Amino acid sequence: FPGLTSQLKYVKNLGAQGLVLSPIFKQSDYSASITAVENFTDVDPVFGTLGDFKALIEEVKKQELHVVLVVEPNHSSNKHLWFNSSEHREEPYTDYYIWKTSPATDQDSGARLPPNNWLSVNGGSAWEWSDVRQEFYLHQFDAQEPDLNYHNPAVVQEIKDVLEFWLDKGVSGFQLGGVDYLLEDIDLTNESHGSEPGFTHDQYGFYNHYQTTNQPGLPALLQHWKEVVDNHTGDGLFTAVRTTTSDLIVDKSVPVLELSQNIHLLSRLGRGFEAQQLNDVVQTWINQTTNTTRPVWQV
User: Fold this and answer.
1) What three-state secondary structure class fits 175?
2) Which residue in 5, 42, 163, 294 is deepest, having the highest Cβ count within 10 Å?
3) Closest to 293 (Cα-Cα) out of 264, 250, 233
4) Peptide bond into 146 cis (omega under 30)
5) Rounded to an integer, what is the distance from CA 297 to the centroid of its chain?
6) What separation in angstroms does the CA of 105 have from each of 109, 111, 114, 128?
7) Is pLDDT above 50 for 251?
8) For the ranges 96-100, 140-144, 161-165, 287-291, which has the lowest average pLDDT?
9) Per-residue pLDDT averaged across 2-16, rounded?
10) Mean pLDDT of 126-147
């Protein structure tokens, strides 16, 4: 933070209006992931202290700039207080994560089998057994990153409180990561097979992930958090990356996300593409959104 603070005049001279900071929250010491957050309202010591961050924001405002924070709210670290309390069935945290038991066992080893066929993006089952709670918990990414349960209104409120904490510190908005994974099918229905060739049943690409991504309640969830930013800032930024459906951007013609960053520009173009093909991809996306939505291409 002090180093960044010392360079803000340079940023201002570039003509930039602000900065987007990759996740700054306190992480678990063991984790190689910057999204295994142990505390959403504290900064990781590698960056400095909350006092250093306050000094950064003060200088940001002097330079008439803005700071936007990257937040990945899909999961926390398994060292987070919420998870520890949930694993021990301590209220009100019992249902802060997605827990499920399973009576099925492996015939050879006798080990308990996961409750359904959901897989982790990182490989293997998306379920991890807890000896403490005697149930499986869901992790769509690393086993040390349990998924939060956004079917629980208390969890939605917790993240709202987190956003308010940082807005009160002077940030101007948030860029959310992994929003497509925030909600899962509440009945934990098995995933069905996808149409992509070359995958086996134990690989993530084998399934279509209709049960674990882009669930119907997602726009309403995002709108709830967007209102927090709007109420605090008036003109703050609430955006996301990895958006995969237009419904996440527009709900009843009201933009849920500003400057939503589409990552699929290059993936939909083959080698040696020509201008017309590029135009077709861009126009297809624009036609799915309203005139109030500005497309942003993340390359």
Assistant:
1) strand
2) 163
3) 250
4) no
5) 18
6) 8, 5, 9, 14
7) no
8) 287-291
9) 96
10) 96
pLDDT at residue 243 greater than cutoff 60: no
| Single-letter amino acid code for the residue at 56 | L
- 30 pLDDT above the threshold of 80: no
Alpha-carbon distance of 41 to 101, in angstroms, equals 32
Question: Which of 143-167 are b and which e, b meaning 16 or more Cβ less than 10 Å from the residue's Cβ?
Answer: bbbbbbbbebeebbebbeebbeebb
> What are the structure tokens assigned to 281, written together?
């991809």
Q: Could you read off the pLDDT of 83-105 as tens digits, one per residue?
A: 999 999 999 999 999 999 987 77
Strand-pair category, 66-71 with 173-176: parallel
- Are the beta carbons of 151 and 186 closer than 8 angstroms? yes
**Secondary structure (3-state) at 63:** coil
Please give the structure tokens belonging to residue 32.
């190689």
Structure tokens at 226: 């967007």
The angle at the Cα of 65, spanning 50 to 61, to the nearest 5 degrees, equals: 55
